[in-house]
């Protein structure tokens, strides 16, 4: 979107997952398969690349804190670092780093994250809030071929759960109520876009259960464990009548916005970042679900030896919320309309991309279009 708004930039990118690159959409960018030799070791190739291409800014997106020391070699060659960082709690692992105050600019997707960083001593003048955005030309309300291909009738209600088969995402709270919902409401179908983490025992177990349930319920319950094309995701969101996001561990959470852009009400966990997405207004864009069900301990390190317990909504809370949404179509329509307006006003990707371009101008001290044309960006 930044390239669409100002197509004369030069983008140099280090992708996290090369296999998921969309070559046609990103044909204007140069990609470099730079990987650290071991976890936490800063690749010297990044500094060499910045020197060779005369790239003044390294823009890091949610990089593990062990890589923060890259700030020193970047500064040594006269470059600057912008760090886009999500925050879950004030116990997040990144607060172990001694390089936090050396980052030139912090970009937070929520004001909640900005407040947490400020409480840790980060200068407010170094922080700006720029949320994630939704391409409203791709996520919008419409009848889909996907819904027809899946054999879903117009009068059937589709509940879509997007996340991962993981404790922190609330999978263990969703699984027990799937059968109950399907048996009580013959006109309801459930789609689970929740892949399992290979090598994580609990995640693999829940993935297995979901796969077995999919076989048991046939086309009443569709399980999609693997990565899908963005175009499929766009159609999936528009094919939904109720979005479900029970995760207790989110630094932002984009799926609720994609549903909102498609006029779909959302049942979501009442964690801090979700509350901000909905402007703390319950029953206006969807329904908050209180998080009181233990999921998993995270962020266990020397200065936080007991870790942080992630909590998600209880199964009966998820069931009750979905039941209410199923039985109140007028409320679903009301919340869908409100969500649609909110996304277009606050989370339109074009506005978000423009905010990033303005930030780059401020960081580089550039004001004119001629200066912008000379700009080169490295995105990791």
Structure, described:
By secondary structure, the chain is of the alpha/beta class. The protein folds into two domains: 2-133 and 348-379, Rossmann fold, CATH 3.40.50; 145-346, 3-Layer(aba) Sandwich (Rossmann fold). It contains 14 helices and 15 strands. It has helices at residues 2-5, 44-53, 71-76, 111-119, 145-149, 171-184, 201-217, 230-238, 255-261, 272-277, 315-327, 329-346, 349-364, 369-373; strands spanning 10-13, 29-31, 57-61, 80-84, 105-108, 127-129, 157-164, 188-195, 221-223, 242-245, 266-269, 286-289, 293-298, 308-312, 376-379. β10, α9 and β11 form a beta-alpha-beta unit. The protein starts with a helix and ends with a strand. The mean pLDDT is 92.
Descriptive terms for the model:
380 residues, seven-stranded parallel sheet, Rossmann fold, globular, alpha/beta
Question: What's a concise summary of this model?
Answer:
The protein is of the alpha/beta class and 380 residues long. It is 37% helix and 18% strand. It has 2 domains: 2-133 and 348-379, Glycogen Phosphorylase B (Rossmann fold, 3-Layer(aba) Sandwich); 145-346, Glycogen Phosphorylase B (Rossmann fold, 3-Layer(aba) Sandwich).
């Amino acid at each position: 979107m930044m390239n669409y708004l100002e197509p004369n930039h030069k983008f140099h990118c280090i992708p996290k997952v090369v296999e998921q690159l969309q070559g046609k959409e990103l044909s204007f960018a140069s990609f470099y398969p730079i990987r650290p030799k071991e976890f936490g070791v800063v690749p010297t190739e990044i500094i060499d690349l910045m020197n060779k291409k005369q790239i003044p800014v390294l823009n890091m997106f949610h990089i593990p804190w062990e890589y923060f020391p890259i700030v020193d070699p970047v500064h040594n060659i006269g470059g600057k670092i912008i760090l886009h960082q999500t925050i879950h709690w004030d116990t997040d692992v990144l607060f172990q780093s001694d390089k936090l105050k050396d980052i030139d600019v912090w970009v937070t997707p929520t004001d909640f994250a900005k407040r947490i960083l400020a409480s840790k001593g980060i200068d407010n003048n170094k922080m700006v809030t720029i949320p994630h955005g939704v391409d409203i030309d791709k996520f919008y309300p419409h009848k889909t071929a996907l819904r027809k291909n899946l054999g879903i009738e117009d009068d059937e209600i589709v509940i879509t759960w997007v996340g991962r088969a993981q404790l922190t995402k609330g999978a263990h709270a969703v699984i027990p109520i799937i059968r109950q919902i399907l048996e009580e409401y013959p006109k309801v179908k459930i789609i689970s876009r929740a892949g399992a983490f290979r090598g994580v025992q609990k995640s693999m177990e829940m993935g297995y259960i979901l796969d077995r349930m999919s076989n048991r319920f046939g086309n009443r319950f569709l399980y999609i464990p693997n990565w899908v094309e963005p175009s499929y995701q766009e159609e999936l969101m528009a094919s939904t009548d109720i979005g479900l996001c029970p995760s207790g561990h989110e630094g932002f959470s984009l799926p609720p916005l994609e549903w909102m852009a498609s006029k779909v009400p959302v049942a979501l966990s009442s964690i801090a970042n979700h509350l901000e997405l909905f402007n703390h207004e319950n029953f206006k864009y969807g329904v908050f679900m209180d998080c009181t069900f233990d999921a998993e301990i995270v962020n266990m390190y020397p200065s936080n030896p007991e870790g942080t317990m992630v909590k998600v909504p209880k199964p009966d809370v998820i069931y009750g919320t979905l039941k209410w949404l199923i039985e109140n179509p007028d409320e679903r329509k009301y919340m869908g309309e409100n969500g649609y307006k909110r996304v277009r006003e606050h989370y339109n990707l074009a506005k978000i991309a423009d905010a990033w371009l303005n930030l780059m101008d401020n960081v580089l001290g550039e004001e004119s279009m001629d200066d912008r044309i000379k700009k080169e960006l490295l995105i990791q």
